[in-house]
């Protein structure tokens, strides 16, 4: 036991004395959470628009003012021809153009029917859709007021309730994703590199001739990284609650327990990689390609899994981060208990046992 | 000049004699370009719908059919109570729940007014928001249909109505891949440019071969140029392969000229390689240089507008994006490929990139010391 503790201490000193790496390990999750939480939103605001007003009457001015005054849009240009719209789009200056035909007010008040054309830059399809929706809503409001709130007959009123995330903040989706990403990165990549480094430098030989059992050697290697990841979990959760305003609705104990389980999964993946890699560079690239990218792509936090082609959906099932992402969302944001995540937990547990078993079995006590 | 030629020869030989580098340089990016756009599909479709129908009337049936036939929604759950329906959302079985109250049809016809409840899983804000917008649009249409059924609409509308039509320019089919592929290509070229060049110098440091260069009559500028030119060529080749792949596999033909893309990429690569070289002059080991360049490219990529629009970012993040070369290239790439912008449209971006190129390379040359330690 004493030997075991000494090994852990040795490993800890390795991490502690490489200040540059430690610095990045601790700051990476914080920077990521802040970037994802504050900078990366799909929320539309201040989208630049141009107005092509061929009518220039009271009604078009009223609608233009309303649109320009809303927080979703900012008017940057008045254009005078369709060609002008095209060239402004090409310079990347606007996202949407609003076209009023000539005689708009006349048509509206005397013919009771007038048209507005919205031209969106659909090179970004989602933003185009959202912008068109917002603009239509503003125009709709104007029309309602024009009708003096007179209720139309046979009206279906739709009441919309946004569950869990009423303000539609991006952070609710990103925080669980970043947790999965960071834990995978810190545990798997750093463990694999630290083991391979010993091989490369030649100190592995010294360790292998020590009386400690291979199983214990591996455990001693991983415990300090487990501690670093616990620190990361703590900093991510603190930031998300106090800086981003994403609350932990469910049980904190359950969340931490599941996180530790996922950390162990990631650590065993790291050990597995280190068994096959010969140089640090290979270990790094293998971790990048087989962990970082799949976690980013297939966990479902950047891109919804259900939209992917079926073969990719099948692949996504073997990515541990996918299950962890579901668990964190369920516990942290939906506030559900263990009863609703036992299936995901079992899958993750099964993966961990299998990975740990294979990696310990494969661990070579000879060079 | 002759010296530079020898240096270039050495670098190219070194690169081409390492099969691992060739694999990582050419095959990896191509696989990613094939896989990423398939996965990176943010088009909102296949929203899983749950329905709680207390009414069971012809109207509620028709409404549900109309929602499903829109193509955006898939009926996944049919619950008896709101609580059960909510449970399906909790289990991620459904994304959106529509509750139709009892006597929906009756109150609509007799009292001119009926209510519906839509509950949306909004953890993913974009998906939730768009899902809600879609279903509201469909319900509005349905409402209009019922109205026309009951009221004999006069030829002229009884009240002023504004008809809003929207057209989608540059991507009329709203194809998300057309949007993502140019951006992903930029990301790949950037990763190759910055991390490979950075690793290259540090490798010479680690292996000790840099000593030999330090004692040779090679000038600092020549050394940097010798490192820069081979990777500049390689990155341009990767870009070309990527453009071919985009055309053959995804059918993306740029509206603008290829020459515009290459003129910009030539300047861009000088800038991004300069950044890589700059990072490498500070790092001591490959592990350090990799972690640092990973960290820097990660921030550059996240703040590049590849995933989320730059205008949506807060002021401080928008200011950072102005110092981010990647965001310029992604913008230019999308402008040229999708909108057919020409050189005059992107002149500002070219000048900005020239500035970056001079700045990074100048700093790298200044910081490179021909002394060890």
* Beta strands of chain B, count: 5
Global geometry of chain B: elongated
Low-confidence stretches of chain A: none
Percent range for helical residues of chain B? 55-70%
Rg calc of chain B? 29 Å
Shape of chain A: elongated
* Mean pLDDT over the residues of chain A: 83
Structural domains of chain B: how many? 2
Q: Give the strand line-up of the largest sheet of chain B.
A: 2-1-3-4
Task: Give the oligomeric state of the chains in this entry, treating copies of one chain as homo and distinct chains as hetero.
Answer: heterodimer
Low-confidence stretches of chain B: none
- Figure out the total of helices of chain A: 14
Structural class category of chain B: alpha/beta
Structural class of chain A: alpha/beta
Strand/helix succession of chain A:
HHEHEHEHEHEHHHHHHHH
Q: How many distinct domains of chain A?
A: 2
* Content of β-strand of chain A: 5-15%
Rounded mean pLDDT of chain B is 83
Describe this structure in words.
The complex is a heterodimer of chains A (367) and B (373). Chain A has helices spanning 2-17, 19-39, 58-69, 82-90, 104-110, 125-146, 171-201, 204-208, 214-242, 252-276, 280-298, 310-316, 320-334, 342-362; strands at 47-53, 73-78, 96-100, 113-121, 155-163. The longest helix of chain A has 31 residues, at 171-201. Chain A is elongated and about 95 Å long. Chain A is built from 14 helices and 5 strands. With 367 residues, chain A is an alpha/beta fold. Chain B has 373 residues and is an alpha/beta fold. Chain B has 2 domains: 2-40 and 178-367, no CATH class; 47-150, abc type-2 transporter like domain (abc type-2 transporter like fold, 3-Layer(aba) Sandwich), CATH 3.40.1710. Chain B is 65% helix and 10% strand. Chain B is built from 14 helices and 5 strands. In chain B, helix 1 (2-16) packs across helix 9, helix 2 packs antiparallel against helix 7 and helix 2 (19-39) packs across helix 9. Chains A and B meet through helix 2, helix 4, strand 4, helix 6 and strand 5 of A and helix 2, helix 4, strand 4, helix 6 and strand 5 of B.
């Amino acid at each position: 036991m004493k030997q075991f503790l000494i090994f852990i201490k040795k490993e800890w000193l390795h991490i502690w004395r490489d200040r540059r790496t430690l610095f990045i390990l601790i700051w990476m999750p914080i920077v990521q959470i802040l970037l994802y939480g504050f900078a990366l939103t799909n929320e539309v605001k201040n989208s630049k628009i141009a107005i092509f007003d061929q009518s220039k009457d009271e009604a078009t001015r009223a609608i233009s003012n309303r649109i320009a005054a809303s927080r979703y849009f900012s008017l940057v240009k008045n254009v005078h021809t369709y060609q002008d719209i095209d060239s402004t789009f090409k310079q990347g200056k606007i996202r949407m153009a609003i076209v009023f035909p000539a005689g708009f007010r006349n048509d509206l008040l005397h013919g009771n029917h007038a048209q507005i054309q919205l031209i969106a830059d659909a090179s970004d399809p989602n933003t185009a859709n959202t912008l068109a929706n917002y603009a239509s809503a503003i125009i709709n409001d104007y029309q309602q007021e024009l009708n003096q709130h007179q209720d139309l007959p046979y009206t279906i009123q739709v009441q919309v309730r946004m569950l869990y995330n009423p303000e539609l903040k991006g952070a609710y989706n990103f925080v669980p994703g970043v947790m999965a990403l960071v834990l995978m990165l810190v545990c798997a990549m750093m463990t694999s590199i630290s083991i391979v480094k010993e091989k490369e430098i030649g100190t592995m030989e010294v360790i292998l001739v020590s009386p400690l059992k291979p199983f214990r050697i591996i455990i001693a290697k991983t415990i300090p990284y487990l501690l670093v990841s616990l620190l990361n979990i703590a900093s991510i959760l603190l930031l998300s609650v106090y800086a981003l305003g994403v609350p932990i609705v469910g049980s904190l104990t359950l969340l931490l327990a599941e996180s530790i389980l996922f950390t162990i999964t990631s650590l065993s993946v790291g050990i597995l990689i280190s068994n096959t890699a010969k140089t640090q560079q290979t270990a790094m690239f293998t971790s990048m390609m087989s962990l970082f990218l799949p976690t980013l792509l297939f966990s479902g936090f950047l891109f919804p899994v259900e939209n992917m082609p079926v073969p990719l959906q099948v692949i996504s099932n073997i990515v541990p981060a996918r299950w962890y992402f579901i668990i964190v969302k369920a516990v942290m944001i939906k506030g559900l208990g263990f009863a609703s995540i036992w299936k995901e937990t079992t899958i993750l547990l099964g993966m961990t046992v299998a990975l740990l078993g294979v990696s310990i079995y494969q661990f070579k006590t000879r060079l | 000049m002759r010296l530079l030629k020898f240096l270039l020869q050495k670098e190219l030989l070194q690169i081409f004699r390492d099969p691992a580098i060739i694999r990582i340089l050419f095959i990896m990016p191509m696989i990613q370009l094939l896989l990423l756009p398939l996965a990176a599909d943010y088009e909102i479709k296949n929203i899983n719908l749950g329905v709680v129908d207390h009414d069971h009337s012809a109207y509620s049936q028709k409404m549900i059919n109309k929602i499903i036939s829109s193509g955006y929604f898939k009926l996944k759950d049919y619950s008896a109570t709101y609580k059960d329906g909510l449970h399906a959302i909790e289990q991620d079985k459904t994304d959106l729940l529509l509750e139709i109250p009892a006597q929906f049809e009756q109150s609509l016809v007799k009292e001119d007014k009926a209510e519906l409840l839509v509950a949306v899983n909004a953890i993913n804000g974009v998906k939730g928001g768009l899902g809600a917008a879609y279903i509201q649009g469909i319900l509005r249409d349905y409402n209009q249909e019922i109205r026309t059924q009951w009221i004999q609409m006069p030829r002229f509308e009884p009240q002023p109505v504004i008809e809003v039509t929207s057209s989608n320019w540059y991507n009329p089919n709203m194809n998300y891949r057309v949007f993502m592929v140019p951006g992903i290509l930029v990301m790949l070229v950037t990763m190759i440019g910055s991390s490979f060049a950075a690793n290259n110098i540090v490798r010479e440091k680690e292996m000790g071969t840099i000593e030999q260069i330090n004692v040779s009559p090679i000038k600092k500028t020549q050394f940097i140029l010798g490192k820069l030119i081979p990777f500049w060529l390689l990155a341009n080749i990767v870009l070309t392969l990527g453009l071919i792949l985009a055309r053959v596999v995804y059918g993306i033909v740029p509206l603008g000229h290829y020459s515009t893309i290459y003129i910009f990429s030539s300047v861009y690569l000088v800038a991004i390689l300069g950044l890589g070289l700059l990072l490498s002059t500070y790092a001591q080991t490959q592990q350090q240089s990799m972690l640092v360049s990973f960290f820097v490219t990660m921030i550059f990529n996240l703040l590049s507008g590849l995933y989320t629009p730059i205008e949506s970012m807060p002021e401080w993040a928008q200011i950072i994006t102005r110092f981010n070369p990647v965001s310029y290239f992604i913008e230019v790439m999308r402008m040229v490929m999708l909108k057919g912008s020409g050189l005059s449209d992107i002149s500002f971006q070219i000048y900005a990139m020239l500035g970056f190129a001079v700045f990074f390379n100048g700093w790298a040359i200044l910081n490179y010391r021909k002394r060890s330690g």
